[in-house]
Amino acid sequence: MAPDKSTDDIETLNKEPGTVARFFISGWSNIVRMMASNALFIIFNIPALIFAGFMSMQFVPWLAPFFIDVDSYIDPVTGNDDAVIQLYFLLVLFLMMLLVSSALICIGPFQTGFAQVYKDIRNNTSVSFFTSFKTGIKTGWKKGIVSMIIGIVITPVLLLAAGFYLNFHSTVGTIIGVVFIVLFFMFILIQNFVYTLVVSTDLKLGKIYKNAILFLFIKLLPGIGAALVVLVFYILMPFLLLLSASYLTLGIFMFLYSFLVVSWGQYFLSYYTGYLIDRYVAVNTDNKDL
């Protein structure tokens, strides 16, 4: 007599989707909230964009010495030789969007609000966008301010160090410069871990940063994978779109980064952080303020 497979079939049908599938299902089922989060992130971070733009104008020549004296590349006769000027401002725009969308330079209290939105979407407990957003700000605004200041201080230090050593034009300088670039990407992950930890635990901020740093080394290979996703979302895609400098690709860039890319990139990091919190952070954390 052949074995009855009906039970196995039922279990297969009732089997929950995997981690990757749940990520896309939860994000897509809350696509309106994701788009609202993306658009409001840009609006609420206008001061951060201005500050990041000013910072980028200082650091693009530092990271690429070719642009140190930009005005010298304008043809004094025809005035039409503006390709380098356009490339310079595209790189400034590119670096500015990277700094803000990666949450290195952002308005910290607002970022805790967005972190709460992503947390509620991930846990399927989202009632409304603004309810989650206000809850995140209310519970994490103090830690958000300190995290924002840390990002503003550490980010230029890492960029300065990377540019300083890369400009040595030597093997040792290149190696050290690459190390600081790696640290830059590690810091992107840490800051995103921190904002999710702020709305997910009652730990003091010092312990939150300690946990965020430990997350990098507990799951090193997945951390590298998360860094690669950041590379694609925040560096490769905008660079390819902006490099062509056509109206079509500029329009695609404006649409994607106004409504989709930032929120999905941050949600991915929030989703990954939530998995690490569920697995490694104790539930009975101390209920203490910063």
Structure description:
α3 (31-44) packs across α12 (261-280). The chain has 290 residues and is an all-alpha fold. The longest helix has 38 residues, at 129-166. The protein contains twelve helices and no strands.
Q: Secondary-structure blueprint of this entry?
A:
Elements: H1 6-14, H2 19-29, H3 31-44, H4 46-63, H5 83-101, H6 108-123, H7 129-166, H8 171-200, H9 205-218, H10 220-243, H11 247-259, H12 261-280
Question: What sequence of helices (H) and strands (E) makes up the elements?
Answer: HHHHHHHHHHHH
End-to-end separation: 67 Å
Shape: globular
Q: What percent of residues adopt helix (DSSP H or I)?
A: over 70%
Proportion of strand residues: under 5%
Structural class label:
mainly alpha
- Show unreliable segments: 5-14, 284-289
How many E strands?
Answer: 0
CA gyration radius, whole angstroms: 22 Å
What's the rounded overall pLDDT mean? Answer: 85
Largest sheet: none
Number of contiguous helices:
12
